[in-house]
Amino acid sequence: MLHDIRNVAVIGAGPAGIATAKQLLAENHFEAIDVFEQQASTGGVWNYHSFAPSQDLSIPQTNPHQPLEEPIWECLGLAGQVQPIPFFVTPMYDRLESNIPNFLMKHSDDSSLENQPLFAGHESVLEYLNIYAEGVRHLVKFKSQVYDVRLEKDNGKDQWLVCTKDLVSSRVTEKIYDAVVVASGHHYVPMVPDIPGIQKWNEAYPGTITHSKYYRTPDPFKDKTVIVVGNSASGIDIATQISTVSALPLLNSKRSEAPEYQRTAPWKREMPEIAEFLPPSASLPRAVRFTNNEIECSIEAIVFCTGYYYSFPFLSNLCPPVIVTGERVESIYNHLFSIPHPTLAFIGLPYKIVPFRTYEGQAAVVARVWSGRLSLPSDREMRAWEAQRIREKGAGKKFHELTNLEDFRYHNEMVDWALKARPGKRDESTVPPRWSKEDEVVRKNIPAIKRVFAEMGQERFAVGSLEELGMKLWE
Question: Is 305:286 a contact under the CB 8 Å cutoff?
Answer without folding.
Answer: no
